UniProtKB/TrEMBL annotation:
BP-aspect Gene Ontology terms: regulation of intracellular pH; sodium ion import across plasma membrane
Chief location category: membrane
Species lineage: Bacteria, Pseudomonadati, Pseudomonadota, Alphaproteobacteria, Hyphomicrobiales
SMART domains: cNMP (SM00100)
Recorded GO CC terms: plasma membrane
Biased composition (Basic and acidic residues): 818-845
Domain Cyclic nucleotide-binding: 708-822
Keywords: Cell membrane, Ion transport, Membrane, Sodium, Sodium transport, Transmembrane, Transmembrane helix, Transport
One matching Pfam family: Na_H_Exchanger
Region (Disordered): 815-845
Membrane-spanning intervals of the chain: 6-24, 31-50, 70-89, 101-122, 128-149, 170-191, 203-222, 242-268, 288-308, 320-341, 361-380, 392-416
Protein name: Sodium:proton antiporter
Amino acid sequence: MDIVLVTTVIASLFLVIGAAEPLAARLKLPFSVILAVLGVMIGAGAIFFLRTELTDALNPVAEAILGLPIRSNVFLYVFLPTLLFQATLGMNLRRMLDDWVPILVLAVVAVVVATLSVGYALSWASTLPLAACLLIGAIVSTTDPSAVVTIFRSISAPRRLARIIEGESLLNDAAAIALFGLFMGFVMLGMPDPDLGAALARFPVLILGGAFAGWLAARVAVRVMALFSRHELAQISISVALPYLAYIGAEQSIGASGVIAVVAAGLTLNLTGPGRLPPQAWANLREIWDVLAHWAGALIFVLAALLIPRLLEEVRVEDFVLVGVVILAAIAARAVILFGLLPLLTALRLSPAVERPYRVAILWGGLRGAVTLALALAVTESFRVPDGIQRVVAILATGFTLFTLIVQGTTLRWVIGRLGLDRLSPIDEALSRQVVAVALQTVREDVARTTENYELSHDTVRSEAKRFGERLDAAVKSAEDSADILDRDRVTLGLIALAGHERDTILARVRERTISARMAEQILSDADRLIEGARSQGRSGYNRAARRSVAYGPGFRVAVVLNGRLRLSGPLARMTADRFELLLSQRLILRDLGTFIDGRIRRIHGRRVADLLHELLARRIEMVETALEGLRLQYPGYAEELERRFIRRTALRLEEREYTAMREDGLIGAEVYTTLMQDLDARRAAAEERPHLDIALQRAELVRQFPLFAELDDAVLRRLGRALETRYINAGEVIIRKDSAARSVFFIASGAVELETAGQTWRLGRGEMFGQMAILMKKARRAEVRAIAPSTLLVLDEARFRRLLERSEALQDAVRASADKRGVDPDHLFDDTNVERPPDDRASV
């Protein structure tokens, strides 16, 4: 084939891709649907010109189009890794973890259910062997929700719904292709009735093997990319090689799922890349991958659509009935998951609620696309698959894909409109009015400065200012006097605006390198939770998200167990250092929000809402300070090291700004500027390194800060430090339950707790203790103790506490004071315990 002609055809396909996007926007249809329609038209046109006698002038072009080397391995080995890898890089993984249950249900369970549903329905309605029917079920079970996500974003649908669909699109390809590989093997072996138990037993092996291969490849790639920190193009080149090597290595070397390997590699790079690569390099890498994925996604649709006319050449009347069976079975299987299993998981509190309109949109938005056609093409190319099965697979997969694209794709926007998902809620409408009012006030100030700078005519300025002022007054009045907005909704609007400004501030600090890229994703994720919490549940949702941002997560608890029982200190050291940096970054951001409340929110919502937001902000700052103080006590000096690092990075940013200004003003040339920046980059690389945290629990230093232990000598303090156990408690967590056995005494290193007994409550803070009364009285605990702030506790067992009580007069005085407060005779306590000072000071604590 003429290489010039082939090149011309491929270049022309890029022109088609370029024209398809504005055409899709004009027709208000999904981009992928337009690409598919154009591809079918091009393929059908090529066949028509080859078979017609009207003209032979276009025959070479038609032959070049139909002769393109379009094979299934081109889709699976060239395009698919690019699409999957880019999808993982663009995901907000921490936010998707909030909805991991519905994502996994849709991506894995729904694929299995759809495969079995379509397979057994076809087996009942046709004479095909069960293995072939299940193979067709696996082929048509993979959805392509990119079109739906595009529409949801264009109509400002909730972010949570888009996240669920993006997570599904990422994982269901992997699940479907893994099942396809299993049943393809049965068909090629000629097994009419496969052993489903054995097939599904191999499924986890494919998944786990692929996940390990992808994780290992990504870890190696990140280490190599970190070595090339000053060579951005080298880093991008390595990232381009990563998904293909992971895919081929998993498929060819260990027989695992290459798709899973690509997903695992992308997720690993997404989690570790921002902390190991320079921020600008990471941003540029993601931009390059966005372009690659756009081209790959568009080409895979066009090329796959070119095959549709050929795949449908041998269609028969009875095939339309089987296509209908596939359509009904696939939709029914998806409906069972969305309207049966998901509500059940929500009722069991295993999944957040997905509202009914969203489930309907997800049901109708399960479009199929290029991956389905590529898998069908792989079946038609295999000489080990009987011809009759090849024909039916090609027709059913193609027919079902066309139905989803033409019928569901073109009506999806109408369905979304009927569900009301394209209309703003009253609170969103009020928010839009608020945004207009705030924006116009800012514009007025900027316009005033502009007119002063250019010394425009006073009459012209006065005339335009009057018109603009009338519009501004109307916008402010609309924002203030909305009859359908309650006071609590005004608070919610203020919280949404405050959380949105917090997110913008975080992005600005990341661009300035005041906040490290390592922490950027997590802090932005916390800000997104604040926005969604305020939008869905108002003040309570905002407060819940705020508490979560400073709480100890389950991973932290696992790291504590690993360090305490297995002496594996690495995870705890890394998470503790991350927590230090996260809290310091949060404190930096929160300190800047008060000005926004006074400047923007007060002007729109009034003093009362502004004062309430100031109060909520003060509580957040207090939570952060409390959590940070707990870490300062545990690891003295480390926070100061991080603060010094922050100051050095800020100084470098200001220095870079000065050099850039001097170059723009012509004070220094390009050569001098380059030399200065190279030196600055070297110093910045050193400043980016986070100081090492010695995770060895410095309990002795912590114990010295307790007034209760002030009189103990150094030897006793060291023994006490070894005897104490450190425990991290989240706000709201129950530490002691009523009627539980008394075995330990708790000392509060940081945070605060609340004791409740007999209808009375006490609050204790740093330096105080609890749990001693039940031990001294030899009774079951009568109080319930709950943390009211993230707290660090030191725990001492009963035997050591009694020995410590005998030697410490300060501790005895604290016990007496606690007993007096609760109406207990302290002398009775000490008589029962026979407290007396031992003659030998060397006695063990």
